[in-house]
Amino acid sequence: MRIFSYFTLVLCALYFMTTLLNIVNNHSNAQRLKDSKMLRGVQVIETAAGELSEYEKEEHIWTLFKQKAYYALKGDINMMDITKNQKEEVFGNRPRLRLDLTPYRIFRVSPAYYNTGDRYDLAIESYERAISIDPQDFEAYITLGDIYSFIGNYAKAIENYKEVLLINPDINKLYISLGSLYNRLGDYDRAITSYGEALQRNPSFGEAYIGLASVYELNGKYLQAIAYYQKYLEINPKSSEVYRSLADAYGNMGEYSKAIAYYQRHLELNPKSGEVYRSLADAYGKANDYPNQIKCLYSALELNPKSSEVYRSLADAYGNMGEYSKEIECYRKSVAINPKEARAQFDLGDAYNNIGDIENVLKQAKELRKLKREDLAEELEQAIRR
Amino acid sequence: MFKKHKYQLIVGALVFIYLFLVYDVNFRGPDEPVYFAYTASIVKDGDLNIINQFYNDYGQYVSKTYNLPDFHNHGGVIFWAPFFLLGKSIYSVADWLNIASIADEGLDKMIKCAMSFSTIIFGFFTLFFTFLLCRKLFSDKAAFWSTLLMLFATPFAYFTLFETGNGQIVASMLSAILIFVLYNYAPAMNGKHWFVYGMFFSICLAVRVELWSMFILFILPYVLILCLSKSIRWNALVLLIAGILPIFILRLINAYLKYGEIRPEELFYIISFLQFKSSYQFNGLFSTFRAVIYSSPIILICFAGVTVSVVGLIKKILKKETCLNECFLITAAIYLFFKLYSLSRIFSPAGDALTGRCFLTEFTLFVLFYGYFVNMQKGRLRLSWIAVSILFMGWNLLVIAEYIVGFDWLYVYSSPGIAARIFNLKYMLFPLFFIKDIYLKLSFFLPLLAFALAVILFLKKKIPSLNHHCRERR
After folding, report:
1. Host domain of residue A328
2. Whole-number pLDDT of residue A105
């Protein structure tokens, strides 16, 4: 009993501390969130006495939707109608705020574990049956859209999502799904329209900005893409991935100083990103700033010391600076890590050729022949002759 | 002590090792986003406002205080936060020491691994307290096998090992402790103890508010019986209720901070019942869709245990013998029946999960009744009941396997025969028998174990010196 008493007192102390922390921080944190752009356009909901909040109603709408789907699949039209009426009695024609996109665990929870692809047709059949019984069951359309999207039938997925929006145009996330599907199909105009629609309904819908930016970027319209990435950053200024996308876009436009600045911002937020060190190094290289390029590549090597590609990039940088001995050393390290990489073997041979080390060039040509790259070996031999 | 309990300790260690090797590190589960968000919020922001954690999903609706008006209980954070911090600390140390193999896994994965680990710790303690309680009523062997069998014959193993992101397992541990203390110590508890018991119960409420029904239908009636039988004094009842108040007041403060008005989580359930009682007409006991008895038919044997205890009670009343044990079992049974009946009328009350999830807090009681019944049987009859139980366990695993892959929904439309379904058991192999992410688990468990050993060694070193000091003083 003594242990139980001590245990209880510890638990109570912990709960007291939790409450104390909540009292101290809750208001100031909420104020900070209110002031930030993150909660721009939010709706403050009142909770009247004896009433559920809008958020709490979700739980029940979810149950009633599922109950309706259950009876629909079972073919019990009477019970389905009763549930439908109950939902409408309490909630009217109110749409759901939250979308449950995991009605079928088969597709979400364990797709990596269980190869159940042969069951998709059954699932589709079930949902089509549900729709034939209740053509207003937009959740069934959503799941059908999800399934079709999952199995790569994008046109059918779009068709189903559109049906949903005809019934309930307030499901904002679907505009994003539609935009993404149009994007995949290469129908960029429609993708832009879908993302635009999502933004019209909720101007702080970050995913829509990302979607729009990606469409413009795919079309080479980097300025527009950049503008949308910037808008996203106004909502979520700590998204390291968007800084990276911005940097890539500036890099594609040839504005390397801006690209460098954004890569650096990404690395401030996510310093363990080896790939971004390489992109940053690449941007420095294109801006002819070789010392910084080398510095970045060494940072990338710290994160991944066995990257033959980073050694190759380092060798290139040293080569551009005219430091041939270091260039050769780096190529050798690259080749030591990955001896089957023909391009690295060739570059090493080429570096030897630059300093007139014919013997080693021939050795490299031999290595290339072992890798069955006759073409590169011959190219090296021709370089000696030249 | 070790020699005396050698067998139990070894088996306990083996069960723990099994749970450790097999548990899923992803902290997935029906309520995972909410509980994870509450824990992250208290650790990172120092508050219980999860609006910033949930911004992407619910950003457009906030309460008057700019909090997320969510009805889920937040009390679990006092159990999860230490594990959250543990995962975070180990990641930070690994990052600082440049241990790429751990740092590369990422902070999020490390924290989720540690939080999933907490679920198996709580699950293990539930089993432990259940076993301790059962051995008071029947033999050690029967208590052990009943606990183990019920672990797999109900969804308890699944929610401990695979869908680890749930509040029920921690609540089941608390409920097991509540029941264990009530059965073991209640008649001997003084006023202070009853107050502490009330405080403990209010912590349980902060974790799962549904436990009120356990209080009203089981604990309170049993305490009343104890009072009426003059085993305890009437002031125990007052002190028990007084013990609930301090934490309840703290909960009201948290509710005020969340909603901008005093609105405890209990209200959600009361209003829901009043508004939706007309829709509560589902057959959640025997329906083929996630129903409790359909999924875990072993509950039928537990009911047989209830019948036996009722007969026992009547016999003792007729003989005018003390029947506190039977009263304890009967009040527990009334509570079980009420909960089964009321929840079974709601369609899928556990959300997008097995309905059995709602009954994990009653795991200890189910084991108790099961063991009570099987232990009463003799010879071949007992063997046949055990054989039936094993069959029921297999059936439970099959239903869970079908639920994992989504066949439960597909079978609403049409279900194939048992011969075709039996092969679905293969989907249960992964959650229950595959060793998962062992390197990640060891990377945080070994430092923890080393720390625990260091503390034990330190204390061992200290204790002789203390004893020596005492001897000197004498």
Report:
1. 306-386
2. 38
Residues in B 287-346 with any Cβ partner in A closer than 8 A: 289, 346
Q: Does B59 touch chain A (CB under 8 A)?
A: yes
Look at residue A97 in the predicted model and tell me its pLDDT.
47
Window from A194-208, B147-161, B386-400 with minimum mean pLDDT: A194-208
CB contacts, 8 Å: B197 with chain A: 8
Give A73-105 pLDDT, tens digit per residue.
Answer: 777 778 877 887 777 777 766 555 444 433 433
CB spacing of B276 vs A1 below 8 angstroms: no
Mean pLDDT: which of A113-122, A292-301, B443-452 is highest?
A: A292-301
- Select from A108, A143, A170 the last residue of a domain: A170
- The average pLDDT across B296-312 equals 91
Angle formed by the axes of helices B235-259 and A2-35, nearest 10°: 20
- What are B96-125's pLDDT values in tens digits? 887 777 777 788 889 999 999 999 999 999
Establish how many alpha carbons lie within 13 A of residue A38's alpha carbon, considering only the half-sphere containing its beta carbon: 23
Q: Considering the domain boundaries, does residue A74 fall inside one?
A: yes
Tell me, what CATH number does A62's domain have?
1.25.40.10
Place of tokens 């832009």: A192
Would you say residue A261 lies in a domain? Answer: no
* pLDDT at B223 > cutoff 80: yes
Residues of chain A found within 8 Å of residue B69, distances taken between Cβ atoms: 45, 47, 53-56
Which residues of chain B lie closer than 8 angstroms to A18, CB-CB?
42, 48, 74, 77-78, 81
**Is residue A187 packed enough to be buried (19+ CB in 10 Å), middle (13-18) or exposed (0-12)?**
middle
Choosing from A170, A195, A211, the residue where a domain stops is A170
- Given CB atoms, is B46 within the 8 Å cutoff of chain A? yes
* A16 falls within a domain: no
Residue A6 resides in a domain: no
Tokens representing residue B297 in the block: 């038919």
Average pLDDT over residues A218-222: 91
**Residue A175 to chain B, least CA–CA distance (Å):** 15
pTM of the model: 0.75
Q: Report the candidate in B297, B290, B286, B284 with the shortest Cα–Cα distance to residue B366.
A: B297
Burial class (CB in 10 A: 0-12, 13-18, 19+), A97: middle
Q: How many domains does chain A have?
A: 2
What mean pLDDT is reported for chain A?
A: 83
Grade residue B2 by pLDDT with cuts at 50, 70 and 90.
Answer: low
Contact A212, A188 (CB under 8 A): no
Closest Cα of chain B to A118: distance in Å?
A: 12
Residues of B in contact with A1 (CB under 8 A): 181, 185, 189, 193
3 state SS of B359: helix
Residue B203 sits at the chain A interface (C-beta within 8 Å): yes
Chain A residue numbers with beta carbons less than 8 Å from the beta carbon of B108 are none
